[in-house]
Amino acid sequence: MENTKVLVFSPCCASARRSLKTNLCKWCDSTPPACEEKVCYSNCNLNSYCEDPYEICVAIWRQDNESIRISTLCHNPHRPIENLMVPNYNTSRCIMTHQPSEDGIIYICGCVDEQECNDKLIFENHTNGYSMLQSKEVIPVAAISLLPPLLVAVMITVIFYLCRTQKRRKRAKAWGGKPGQPPALPEPGRSAEREEKLSVLMDENPAGASTTCASSRPAELLPIELDEMVGKGQFAEVWRAKLSHSRSGQYETVAVKIFPCEEYSSWKNESQIFTDASLKHDSVLRFLTAEDRGTGPRREYWLITAYHSRGNLKDYLSHHVLSWMDLQKMAGSLVSGVAHLHSDYTACGRPKIPIAHRDIKSTNVLVKNEQECVLCDFGIAIRLDPSLTVDDFANSGQAKVKNYELPFGSKVQEQPCVDTMRDIVLHGRGRPEIPSSWLVHQGMRFLCDTITECWDHDPEARLTAHCVAERFNLMAQMDCDDILNNNTDNEASKTASPGGEHQDSDGSRNTQ
After folding, report:
1. Which CATH architecture has domain 157-310?
2. Is 359 a catalytic residue?
3. Yes or no: is domain 12-130 CATH 2.60.40.1840?
4. Using the 8-state DSSP alphabet, how is residue 462 labeled?
5. Which tens digits make up the pLDDT trace of 175-188?
6. CB 409: neighbour CB atoms within 10 A?
7. 257 is in an annotated binding site
8. Where are the beta strands (DSSP E) in 96-192?
9. Which residue in 359, 392, 481, 504 is the catalytic one?
10. Residue ranges of the domains in the chain?
């Protein structure tokens, strides 16, 4: 049996002329190439490690009368692709070879031993098979065709800027009082009027200001007194603070997220997400305003939001065991918030631009009360504006890898790198383990099925946020016991505190 495997696998290894390490290839279904002389580039911003060690990097060039498109992927060279066999692939250079076809012009190349070798496409002896002039002619044609909409866009931008400037002036007058004095805030009961006046009053700044301390000072700073630091992340500190109401002498407890001068770009991105009026939702952290304070190297950037004393979900779950009803309602509120971010419409039916949070984890969820959670920390969130290009999305930042990844704690070191996580999740198709004790409970088993479908390896097969919200509506109708662990969690009963609260039990970790 073992001899048979060796005989079958050896030709693959010999022909590919490489070790058991898999190739890293560009992987895009269809991208327009960028050409210069006899060399083109795929323009693909995505890559992936090949699933098997004998797979090679492949690029397919398709050209018709209207356009040129490039497909890049990993492929077994011993099998045909679109009825074509990949020729001359035992090289680190992707040399395009013309292939006969009735559907326009087709070139194909394969390569190994060099990362993303199917990005650079080389034409050597087939200059008649493609037209570099055609690619260059697209530029003036595109410029002429895009000129009218570009002028319209400029006019709309100017009108929008003038309207917004006028609105700022009216809003500044609405504060009242003399210059240099803090604004007089309304009574605590008049929350609707207060939220209207506590909107962001900041100037626009050029994108290039992200590396310097830009100025975007509002007309008036809120009368806030910092109380105690309650959290610290990589980019900012979070403080509990008092927002004074000068007329009544009372104050409101708020949270202040303070960014240092060098993290201006992070503050600007999050404040722009928060200032979108369509973001407001019961399951999204309530935003008050954004400010910049201080001068020179002591300049700081503030985000002022509602304060939730129960803290983040991770810390809450480390000291509490949720009943099935509590889990259902808290998770349901979180799913409702994510569905709202992804939606094209608000609850009132008004169109909105979908938002991808891109960093949802237990430390970025705050516990509002025993039955509700709110999403926070939109530092790397992105608005899925239809006008954005593929490059805009690719250059919009990426989530940071945490020092300790709880779901894969047994498989990675304390500081796993992106390549390690890519090998585990993408190439190895690894997923967090679901404890068998969860599957005993009927509701938890249904929840685990939903979780499994959400992390399917095929993106097209994953559930949308709206589908998950529908699943939670179904769970609310299920007749389940209110005890998550049933009789299987003996550890929880052993570690129960005198007050009946389970401290750091398996149930709390599993729920997290």
Report:
1. 2-Layer Sandwich (3.30)
2. yes
3. no
4. S
5. 343 333 433 333 44
6. 12
7. yes
8. 97-99, 105-111, 120-122
9. 359
10. 12-130, 157-310, 325-511
